[in-house]
Design a protein that fits this description.
five-stranded mixed beta sheet; 185 residues; alpha+beta; single chain; 6 helices; four-stranded antiparallel beta sheet
Length: 185
């Protein structure tokens, strides 16, 4: 199957690529529900050494820069209680941690989670964290620009491989809240 975006050799419907996905992501695909069929989520095999955005777009298509999203884990504190939240914004922007995220969570303080926390609590590899398959009780903040795209490239849970996900599917993920201005230039 041809990929709807990028220059990939082959795109496989995620339900047919479960062996390529780590457990939390495979489980999320296996139990997928929502208006977007799971078969529209596509897996593309990519080289792990090209996982970082700048190198990635050189190999798989410059147009992917504006159709890629990053999923970052943020730790917030409110009243002595810590909360982890995932944030998804276009890769051409940065997540407004100290503005939009902090206000949305009513937190006193918010900052990017450490690599050990992000990977340990998600069960995913650093550089491949994806909103598909996050812990079910986590809030998921999604920039509205991500939801507006026909397809978005995100991590697959590993540094090898990526997912191509219809933008509107992000709004239907567990705990998702779509926000204007989450990603800022």
């Amino acid at each position: 199957m041809d990929a709807p975006i990028g220059r990939f050799d082959h795109a496989t419907p995620a339900p047919d690529a479960l062996d390529e996905l780590i457990r939390p992501v495979a489980d999320a695909v296996r139990h997928w529900s929502g208006s977007v069929p799971a078969e529209q989520i596509l897996y593309v095999d990519t080289e792990p050494e090209w996982a970082d955005t700048a190198v990635f777009v050189e190999h798989y298509g410059r147009e992917l820069l504006e159709r890629s999203a990053n999923c970052v884990v943020v730790a917030s504190k409110r009243g002595g209680e810590s909360t982890l939240v995932a944030c998804v914004a276009l890769s051409t922007t940065r997540v407004d941690v100290n503005g939009v995220v902090r206000r949305q969570l009513g937190a006193r303080k918010a900052s990017f989670a450490s690599m050990d926390t992000a990977t340990g609590d998600t069960g995913m590899e650093y550089g491949g964290i994806t909103p598909v398959g996050l812990p079910g009780d986590w809030p998921l903040l999604v920039d509205s620009a991500v939801v507006d795209l026909p397809y978005v490239l995100v991590g697959s849970g590993r540094r090898r491989g990526k997912l191509l996900v219809p933008g509107k599917a992000f709004a239907e993920l567990p705990g998702a809240v779509v926000l204007e201005g989450l990603g800022v230039a």
